[in-house]
Design goal:
Layout: H1 14-20, E1 33-34, E2 40-44, H2 47-50, H3 63-68, H4 86-100, E3 104-108, H5 111-114, H6 124-139, E4 143-149, H7 155-159, H8 167-183, E5 189-194, H9 196-202, H10 216-240, E6 246-251, E7 256-258, H11 263-286, H12 291-296, H13 303-306, H14 311-315, E8 321-325, E9 330-334, E10 361-364, H15 380-393, E11 397-402, H16 419-437, E12 442-448, E13 467-469, E14 476-478, H17 480-491, E15 493-494
Parallel strand pairs: 2-3, 2-12, 3-4, 4-5, 5-6, 6-8, 7-9, 8-11, 11-12
Antiparallel strand pairs: 1-15, 9-10, 13-14
Helix pairs in contact: 4-6, 8-10, 9-10, 10-11, 15-16, 16-17
């Protein structure tokens, strides 16, 4: 504003108040919706999506290197070879985090950087990278949260069967032990798996994610071995970490909604809830797979041979926090051959379903505006999930991912104005606040994502970052949403 005539006003502005009380200058206005003290304000990333340097420091190929280098698997043939070069630029990225005022940062450890063949001793060069990262975070007062598995299985392990093979669970626990022994003095919050639903059902069911296999029985076997790997890893982490360390798993639980109250639609919702959610929460929290899931999938796998004595006790070892990743709700009905119904729920394009045992279910677009992923925006699913998790399991919760891709435009002055992303984050923070008011013990929020990055099968076409990355120069520029989020963090909440 260049006008020299101040507009008429009847109420005091923040500037008036600051002038009247100079001592209060640095104290921000309390927000209308304040989050609990100690709430972790974070951002999240994953190794393969940001690190690049895929052939450095002794790292070998993961299933995502193989998959992305296979023609036709990712948009534009994009790979994570360079990604956003975080491996070399992590110090700059941590300075950015500090400028945003993040109090916590969730990243993932690259398994093939730490244990290239998925067996045997750890590689010191791989551990050194994460030691340096954790030290730099500590120097900026940012609390690290390490995810052990964000989808980059060493290709060596896929070559001998991958997650559908039981041995993979044991290999994962060994890797967890190595990582915890080396990094447990620097990292106090550990997430075993990120979204095992995607690993099992997109990786081995619909095949839109690495390793790109399409066998419903293998997808179910993978789900059990991911659960088992989680449980064995919890045991290994407890043995290696200081007693104050916190252990979590991050699930992309589906906020499943029937299209109508018709019994057939309710049955469809029950099936998707079973193979989308309770296949994980059942064994994790109740030490049993749900009976209806076993019945729905009995024609595909022999659960009695798959699940061995003692497995469920391993899987249900207590954890300290549950991580929830949420983007959009899931609306289902009994099979309908209409224009708006799909078989796959917006998880990429494949003739193979990621929903074994639920072939007679259709997915519908939820009401609401769409993000650039085509995902409807409906924060009420987040409130619903947090309140029901609190009611049913009672444990502390972290929102370990939430955010949105939009078609960002770089302005003539180089700035990126992304009001849709601000609106998305604000609405989802309000949804979390509502769950907190209803009693849910939510301890943190991790925006997906800190930086624009390699969005799996969509390559670099979808931008989720609060910080824009120019893929030619790799220059980082905070978007308006980053500045807005910094202010939210400074004030401890939203209005
Ligand atoms: C989640 C993934 C994360 C990112 C977001 C958009 O499913 O965990 O890596 O791709 O979706």
């Amino acid at each position: 504003m260049t006008s020299t005539v101040p507009p008429a006003r009847t109420t005091a502005t923040p500037a008036d108040r600051a002038a009247a009380a100079p001592a209060a200058l640095s104290t921000p206005e309390p927000p209308a919706r304040a989050f609990p003290p100690g709430f972790r304000w974070g951002a999240a990333t994953a190794a393969y999506q940001i690190e690049g340097a895929t052939a450095e420091g002794g790292r070998t190929a993961s299933i995502w290197d193989t998959f992305s280098h296979t023609p036709g698997r990712t948009a534009g043939g994009h790979t994570g070879d360079v990604a956003v070069d975080h491996y070399h630029r992590f110090r700059e990225d941590i300075r950015l985090m500090a400028r945003l005022g993040l109090t916590s940062y969730r990243f993932s450890l690259s398994w093939p950087r730490i244990q290239p063949t998925g067996r045997g001793p750890a590689l010191e060069s791989g551990l050194d990278f994460y030691r340096a990262l954790a030290d730099e975070l500590a120097a900026h007062g940012i609390r690290p949260v390490a995810t052990l598995y964000h989808w980059d299985l060493p290709q060596h392990l896929e070559d001998v069967g991958g997650w559908p093979a039981r041995d993979n669970a044991e290999r994962f626990a060994d890797y967890a032990a190595l990582a915890a022994q080396a990094l447990g003095d620097r990292i106090d919050t550990w997430v075993t798996l990120n979204e095992p639903w995607c690993s099992a059902f997109l990786g081995y069911g619909s095949g839109v994610h690495a390793p790109g296999r399409t066998n419903p029985a293998d997808a179910l076997r993978a789900a059990h071995h991911l659960n088992l790997g989680h449980g064995l890893a919890v045991g290994a982490l407890r043995a290696a970490l200081p007693s104050a360390a916190e252990i979590a798993v991050s699930l992309n639980l589906h906020a499943v909604r029937p299209l109508s109250g018709h019994p057939d639609d309710l049955a469809a919702a029950r099936r998707i809830d079973a193979v989308g959610n309770r296949i994980f929460t059942g064994p994790l929290f109740s030490g049993a797979y749900p009976e209806d899931l076993l019945a729905d999938t009995a024609h595909l796998v022999d659960w009695d041979t798959l699940v061995r004595d003692g497995d469920l006790a391993e899987i249900s070892r207590p954890i300290d926090l549950l991580g929830l990743n949420y983007y959009t709700p899931t609306v289902v009905s009994a099979d309908r051959d209409t224009e708006n119904a799909t078989r796959h729920d917006g998880h990429g394009d494949s003739e193979h379903s990621p929903w074994p045992g639920a072939d007679d279910v259709s997915f519908h677009r939820a009401p609401g505006e769409l993000t650039a992923m085509g995902w409807p925006i409906d924060p009420s699913g987040l409130t619903d999930l947090l309140t029901s998790l609190h009611r049913e399991h009672g444990l502390p919760l972290l929102v370990t991912e939430n955010g949105a891709a939009f078609e960002d435009v770089v302005g003539a002055d180089g700035s990126i104005d992304d009001p849709e992303r601000i609106a998305y984050i604000r609405a989802h923070l309000a949804a979390i606040h509502q769950a907190v008011e209803a009693g849910a013990d939510v301890r943190g929020y991790y925006l997906w994502s800190l930086l624009d990055n390699f969005e799996w099968a969509y390559g670099y076409a979808k931008r989720f970052g609060a910080v824009h990355v120019d893929y030619d120069t790799l220059a980082r520029t905070p978007k308006a949403s980053a500045h807005w989020y910094a202010e939210v963090i400074r004030r401890g909440g939203i209005d």
